[in-house]
Amino acid sequence: MKSVQKFGSLLLAALMILSLTACGSKTNNTPAQTPSNGTPTENTPAETPDDAATGDADNTASGGKVLVVYYSASGNTKRVAEDIAEAADGDLFEITPAEPYTSDDLNWTNSDSRVSREHDDESLRDVPLTTTGVENWDDYDTVFIGYPIWWGIAAWPVDTFVKNNDFTDKTVIPFATSSSSGMGQSGTLLSEMAGTGDWQDGQRFSSGASQSDVADWVSGLGLNG
């Protein structure tokens, strides 16, 4: 009787050892825990789509492309335009009349000169240009427009350019050169001709304005902020 009991105890112990061994084997073969979408957690990217989008937004440049458009009769406005483009890291576009003005045409003291006749007869101020189109125009967020002051207003070749372009969603900054006259209503009149765009007050420069004067003005506009 004792032998039977001893054999039964040994058999029970053996069965328990086999059972524990089997459980340990199952535990070691358990697959990695997965989230509800079935993707193993160790393969989940550290950066979520939302994090990635935020990162892209943080790296987006706050500034936009700058274009400096100008008409220059004697070279003064061209020089200032070039200084603005350098200071603002912008592109240049020159407004060019299809029939360029000669020095005689620009002699405002002669009542029969071209500019004098155009001044007296507004119908003559619709000056054809070689082109009014700017390559990649839609890419520019800020547009400077420069011109000499003629009889207190912007030189009228600029009118043709302004009337033939859409300034929607653009910040427009006029600038002018003159020996003595101020900006006057030149910027306001151009804004009315355009009918679109966010036109700023602008700046008048003397004919002898230095590059540093121009650069200081551009810096104060906060274009890169």
Structural class: alpha/beta
Report the order of strands and helices.
HHEHEHEEHEHEEH
- The proportion of strand residues reads 15-25%
Envelope shape = globular
**What's the N-to-C terminus distance?**
98 Å
Low-pLDDT regions: 1-62
Number of strands: 7
What's the mean pLDDT score?
79
- Give Rg in angstroms: 38 Å
How many helix segments?
7
Q: Biggest sheet, in brief?
A: 7 strands, mixed
Q: Roughly what percent helix?
A: 25-40%
Spell out the blueprint of helices and strands:
Layout: H1 2-28, H2 49-58, E1 65-70, H3 76-88, E2 91-94, H4 114-120, E3 140-150, E4 153-154, H5 157-163, E5 171-178, H6 186-194, E6 198-199, E7 203-206, H7 211-220
Parallel strand pairs: 1-2, 1-3, 3-5, 5-6, 5-7
Antiparallel strand pairs: 3-4
Short description:
The chain has 225 residues and is of the alpha/beta class.
Overview of the structural elements:
This protein is an alpha/beta fold and 225 residues long. It has helices spanning 2-28, 49-58, 76-88, 114-120, 157-163, 186-194, 211-220; strands at residues 65-70, 91-94, 140-150, 153-154, 171-178, 198-199, 203-206. Strands 1, 2, 3, 4, 5, 6 and 7 form a seven-stranded mixed sheet that branches. The protein is globular. The N and C termini lie far apart (98 Å).
Keywords:
globular, seven-stranded mixed sheet, alpha/beta, 16% strand, 225 residues, 37% helix
